Each structure stands twice: as structure tokens, then as C-alpha cells.
């Protein structure tokens, strides 16, 4: 179709009908609990002040969570998530983000990163990370000077080291671990390409001492494979990227009923709509089936022949050289009578 100068093409929009089934209505609803939905996006922005170390942290999170994030470059004043969460919820819902990484800086809490999660358009929980200066006297370089060589959309292998991560009484570490997994896990897949395992994200926690909060060490390593002379290569880790040390600050836990509701998982696309009887799944994910057999007819079952018993009785008598028992004599008599009758029938024929 030719379009003449001064004319504009007309775009015709056809209305889409409403979903007819309940399953389609639930899956098409924004924020529905369906495993086929894309991963959660992360909203990354900062407050009125953002020093260079804090800017490096936020841009590092932005680079490693692409393309599932939204980055704001302008400052946002009068935003206090712990005092009033309405502005945070509005920005997250407007940009369709389920995670928030907010950077703030003040005299009382310098270089602070607040991680928040949104559920059902409302704030679920909060955890605060206080960025510490490096111990070895080094400085956190600007993000432009960092070279990580991580491909777009690659998922890291995450390692949580330290006993605080396994402590059920440490609410702050439970929330922090869950938030980091939601942020960096990417898309869920059934198969993993070995070539895509290119870097490791290690989050280590020191042992708590004298009631103080343990320091959190965040490091990144590149996976390097070298020749080993065997079928499997030799794997080495090379440290890349910046070194971040944090201290856990304030936390806000979700209500128990809201937390329980948010942890429910919907049915997967390949899961059958109706569960089959006598089919279960074990802890390893293997399908186990139970088969019920009917009553078996044992009348036609072939038993052991008498010749075998006779031969066995003769072997036992020759080895032990004992007097045969009455039962064996009866078996021998019966077997001999059968042989005589069989010989007579053969002669008549």
C-alpha cells in the first residue's frame, strides 16, 4: 500500500474480548500468583543526597539485574520509607516493580540502602543496609571504572556463607536473604545452560559477637574453566567488581497472615489441573504411583513334581546314610506305582 505525502497511516485497533474462563481471568490480572509471569522488576533510585560510594552500589545492582529493573537518575526528596510508605508504594506500583532499592544519606545514617518488597500493591517488608568503608584502606571506585564483564540477563550462582543465614531467630537475615534472592534470581527455567554460569555472587556474614550485628560482605567472582586433563575442566574463581561491606540496620517484618499469603505459589503451566489418585510426589520431586492388584487365581499354579522330591530324597539318603523316613517311603511307593502303570500303558499301545 502506497502512502502519499501529507497522509498518515491509520492504525485500527480491534477490541479484545474479556476472558471467558476463571483461569484466564486470574492469569490476566496484574500481580497474579502465576509461575509463568515474568520475574519481579526492581525500582532503583536515591533520595536528596547520593554520595559516590552509594551511587556505585545502586548502579552495580542496576547492571546485574538488567533488563528487569527501572533506574531513576533524579533525586527524590522527602521520601522516608519507615515513616511513610505511600510514596514508595506509589512509585513501585506505577512502574510495575515488586522490589525497591532506595539509597539515602544523612548524618545519622550515611550511605544507607533500603531494600523493600511490594505485595498486592502494598509494602510487605523492609531491611536497611548501612554501607561501611573498606577495612584495608581502599576506596570504593566509581562505577565507570569497574569492569565486571557480565552478560545481559545472566543469572548468578548465589552463595550465602555464615551461620546467621541459617538462624531462624534472626529476622533481619531471613528478610535480607529472601530479598536478595528475589532481586538476582532472574527468570525461572527448567533447564540451565552451563555456558551461562559465568559468575558467582557471595554474601558472607561474620559470626555475631557481644550482641553486635554481624558485618555482611558482598563479593563477585568470575567462573574460569581451565584444562585439567580429565573430562571435567578445572574451575577457578577470579574476584571481579567492587567489594561491599554492610551492616544491617532497621527492619520491618510483614504481618504473619500477609507473609503466609505472599508465600503461596500458583500452579505451574505443566501441572495437571486435577490430581490423579494414588500418585504422589516425594521430597526429591520424583513421581511415585501405587498399583492395586486384584485377587489372583492360584488353582492353575504348577507345583513341584514328585520326581524332583524322589531325586532329592535319594541324594539325602546317600549322603547321610541314614534310614529313610516314613514320608519319603510313601513318596517312593507312589512314584514307583506311577512308573509301573506308565510302562503297562506303553506295552498295550
At the fold tier of CATH, the topology name of one domain is Rossmann fold
Which whole number gives the mean pLDDT? 78
Low-pLDDT sequence parts: 1-17, 30-35, 326-332
CATH class of one domain: Alpha Beta
Strand order of the largest sheet: 2-1-3-4-5-9-8-7-6
- Helix fraction bin: 25-40%
Structure, explained:
There is one protein chain. The chain has 349 residues and is an alpha/beta fold. It has a domain at 38-187 and 194-254: Rossmann fold (3-Layer(aba) Sandwich), CATH 3.40.50.10480. 25% of the residues lie in helices and 23% in strands. The protein is built from 7 helices and 11 strands. The chain has helices at residues 22-28, 52-64, 86-94, 171-184, 256-262, 306-320, 326-348, and strands at residues 42-46, 69-71, 99-104, 112-119, 122-132, 157-161, 199-205, 215-226, 234-252, 279-281, 287-289. The strands form 2 sheets. A 9-stranded mixed beta sheet has the order 2-1-3-4-5-9-8-7-6. A two-stranded antiparallel ribbon has the order 10-11. Strand 1 (42-46), helix 2 (52-64) and strand 2 form a beta-alpha-beta unit. Helix 6 packs across helix 7. It starts with 21 loop residues before the first helix and ends with a helix.
Which properties best describe this structure?
single chain; 349 residues; alpha/beta; Rossmann fold; nine-stranded mixed beta sheet; two-stranded antiparallel sheet; 7 helices; 11 strands; 23% strand; elongated; disordered N terminus
Amino acid at each position: 500500500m502506497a502512502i502519499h505525502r501529507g497522509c498518515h497511516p491509520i492504525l485500527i485497533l480491534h477490541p479484545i474480548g474479556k476472558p471467558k474462563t476463571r483461569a484466564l481471568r486470574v492469569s490476566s490480572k496484574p500481580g497474579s500468583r502465576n509461575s509463568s509471569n515474568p520475574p519481579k522488576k526492581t525500582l532503583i533510585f536515591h533520595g536528596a543526597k547520593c554520595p559516590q560510594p552509594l551511587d556505585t552500589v545502586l548502579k552495580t545492582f542496576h547492571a546485574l539485574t538488567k533488563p528487569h529493573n527501572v533506574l531513576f537518575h533524579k533525586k527524590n526528596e522527602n521520601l522516608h520509607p519507615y515513616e511513610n510508605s505511600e510514596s514508595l508504594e506509589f512509585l513501585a506500583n506505577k512502574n510495575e516493580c515488586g522490589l525497591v532499592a532506595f539509597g539515602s544519606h544523612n548524618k545519622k545514617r550515611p550511605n544507607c540502602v533500603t531494600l523493600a518488597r511490594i505485595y498486592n500493591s502494598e509494602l510487605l517488608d523492609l531491611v536497611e543496609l548501612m554501607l561501611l568503608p573498606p577495612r584495608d584502606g581502599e576506596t570504593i571506585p566509581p562505577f565507570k571504572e569497574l569492569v565486571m564483564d557480565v552478560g545481559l540477563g545472566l543469572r548468578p550462582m548465589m552463595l550465602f556463607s555464615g551461620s546467621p543465614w541459617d538462624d531462624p531467630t534472626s529476622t533481619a537475615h531471613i528478610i535480607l536473604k529472601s530479598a536478595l534472592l528475589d532481586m538476582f534470581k532472574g527468570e525461572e527455567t527448567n533447564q540451565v545452560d552451563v555456558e551461562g554460569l559465568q559468575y558467582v555472587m557471595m554474601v558472607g556474614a561474620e559470626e555475631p559477637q557481644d550482641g553486635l550485628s554481624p558485618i555482611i560482605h558482598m563479593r563477585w567472582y568470575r567462573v574460569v574453566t581451565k584444562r585439567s586433563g580429565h573430562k571435567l575442566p578445572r574451575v577457578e574463581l577470579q574476584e571481579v567488581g567492587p567489594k561491599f561491606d554492610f551492616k544491617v540496620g532497621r527492619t520491618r517484618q510483614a504481618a504473619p497472615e500477609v507473609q503466609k499469603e505472599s508465600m503461596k505459589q500458583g500452579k505451574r503451566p505443566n501441572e495437571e489441573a486435577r490430581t490423579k489418585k494414588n500418585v504422589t510426589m516425594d521430597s526429591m520431586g520424583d513421581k511415585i504411583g501405587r498399583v492395586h492388584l486384584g485377587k489372583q487365581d492360584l488353582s492353575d499354579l504348577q507345583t513341584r513334581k514328585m520326581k524332583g522330591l524322589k531325586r532329592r530324597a535319594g541324594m539325602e539318603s546317600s549322603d547321610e546314610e541314614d534310614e529313610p523316613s516314613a514320608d519319603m517311603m510313601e513318596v517312593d511307593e507312589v512314584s514307583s506305582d506311577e512308573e509301573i502303570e506308565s510302562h503297562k500303558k506303553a506295552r498295550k499301545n
